[in-house]
From TrEMBL:
Assigned keywords, A-Z: Hydrolase
Pfam family, one: MazG
A GO molecular function held by the record: hydrolase activity
Signal peptide: none
SUPFAM superfamilies: all-alpha NTP pyrophosphatases (SSF101386)
Superkingdom of origin organism: Bacteria
Protein name as catalogued: Nucleotide pyrophosphohydrolase
Species name: Biomaibacter acetigenes
Lineage summary: Bacteria, Bacillati, Bacillota, Clostridia, Thermosediminibacterales
Claim: Oxidoreductase is one of the keywords in the record: no
Ranges for domain NTP pyrophosphohydrolase MazG-like: 23-103
Length: 108
């Protein structure tokens, strides 16, 4: 919750990518690849990869942000695949997700 006791939302709008014919499987694999790149950036920044840290904090955090956006883009691409190839109603799924978060006490 924010300072006013209300839930905060981060709204992000990412485009459907052109020139691709993603499948559910190829998109899931790409999502894992991008998540691995995010983990690598975090691991190097925190010195958890066994390598000496070679980047300044600002540079490392910037890289994490870029990798996180790559993860988000692929997740959005997977949503397009679910809608277009499997007729999943994502608006309904988002509402169900929000209700799940509320039932677990994460949202009020």
């Amino acid at each position: 919750m924010n300072k006013q006791g209300r839930n905060s939302f981060k709204v992000i709008s990412l485009p459907k990518l052109n020139g691709l014919t993603p499948t559910l499987e190829s998109t899931a694999l790409k999502l894992m690849e991008e998540a691995g790149e995010l983990a690598q950036a975090i691991g190097k920044f925190r010195g958890r990869s066994g390598e000496k840290i070679r980047m300044e904090e600002k540079e490392a955090v910037d890289r994490m942000a870029r990798e996180l956006l790559d993860v988000a883009q692929v997740a959005v691409s997977m949503m397009f695949v679910l809608e277009e190839n499997y007729n999943i109603d994502l608006e309904e799924k988002i509402e169900q997700h929000i209700q799940k978060l509320k039932s677990k006490g994460y949202l009020f």
